[in-house]
Amino acid sequence: MSSKNLIQIKQFCLYHEIENTFITELHNYGLIEIIVFEEDEYFQPEQLPAVEKMIRLHYDLKINLEGLDVIANLLNKIETLQQNLTTTQNKLRLYEQHQID
C-alpha cells in the first residue's frame, strides 16, 4: 500500500487550521474512514468534499458532531431517494415510449 494517493490528516489539519481530534471524532462517528500507514493517518481523496463540508458546518455554523452525524445521514438518504427517482423516471420514459410505438 502506498500513501501516494492518500491525504495525510496531519497536513490537512495544518492547512485548514483545525485540530487533528476533529478528524478523529468524524471517524469515531463513522463519518469518514481513516487509514493508518507507517504510523501516519490518512483518508481517501474521495472523502475530501464531505470532510470539507463537515468542517464548514462545524466551525462556521457551530454544528456539533451529533448534528453532523444526523446531517450526513439525511444527505445520504436524499441522495439515495434522488437516484431512485431518476431510475423510476427513466423506466417510466421507456414504458411511455413503448406504449407510443
UniProtKB/TrEMBL annotation:
Gene3D superfamilies: 1.10.1660.10. The keyword Coiled coil applies. Keywords: Coiled coil. Residues 71-98 form a coiled coil. This is Chaperone modulatory protein CbpM. The gene is cbpM.
